[in-house]
Amino acid sequence: MPAVLNRTLSSLLALTVAVAVSGCNKEPAATTAAAPETPAATMPAAEPHPTPAAPTESVDLSGIAKADGGKTIAEVFAEKDQLAGQPVVFRGKVVKTNPNIMGKNWLHVRDGSGAEGTNDLTVTTAAGAIPSVGDTVVVKGTVALEKDFGMGYQYDIIVEDAEVTVEATGS
Questions:
Q1: How many C-beta atoms lie closer than 10 Å to residue 44's C-beta?
Q2: Which of 31, 44, 50, 57 is deepest in the core (most CB within 10 A)?
Q3: Residue 92: left if φ>0, alpha if ψ -120 to 50, beta else—which one?
Q4: What SS3 state is found at 42?
């Protein structure tokens, strides 16, 4: 048996014995007051992070051309399993922004393709300058699946650490 594994097993055995011996007390256990209910225990079950039902402002999504060598947002959703961990490029308009959350900027981008549930991609970028709602952008980032950031922020698909280039401003 390799030395590292032997040491690990010895440490694990020693820890198990120490825990077993420390719990061995011939006197009855003292009653303790019940622990106060923690805020986490009273919180409702987490819901998945909803995508906006409609753009936060009236952003015109007509006439958005597919990026050269890129995909539409509907194609990214349709091919998400094949694109997992891969770089992707797409063009769209920013419909929602959340700056500097967990050290990143968060964008929702749409291009007019896809149906409800497959028409809005969440994108993270490095903190710093952030495009405005209505800006036409080209996004280059890595597709990630099944991301759970806690507190109900769950994403079936997200484009992470993206480079976002603003091509045109305004809606």
A1: 6
A2: 57
A3: beta
A4: helix
Least confident of 29-38, 63-72, 76-85, 141-150: 29-38
H-helix segments, the chain: 3-22, 39-42, 73-78, 80-83
Q: Is residue 55 within 8 Å of 64, Cβ to Cβ?
A: no
pLDDT reported for residue 78? 96
Residue 91, helix vs strand vs coil: strand
Q: What is the mean pLDDT of residues 42-64?
A: 61
Query: What does pLDDT average to over the chain?
Result: 78
The predicted pLDDT at position 25 comes to 44
Rounded CA-CA distance 150/148 in Å is: 6
Which token pair is 134? Answer: 């209505």
Instruction: For residues 171 and 161, give the distance between their C-alpha atoms in angstroms, rounded to a whole number.
Output: 25
**Which residue is associated with the tokens 């091509």?**
167
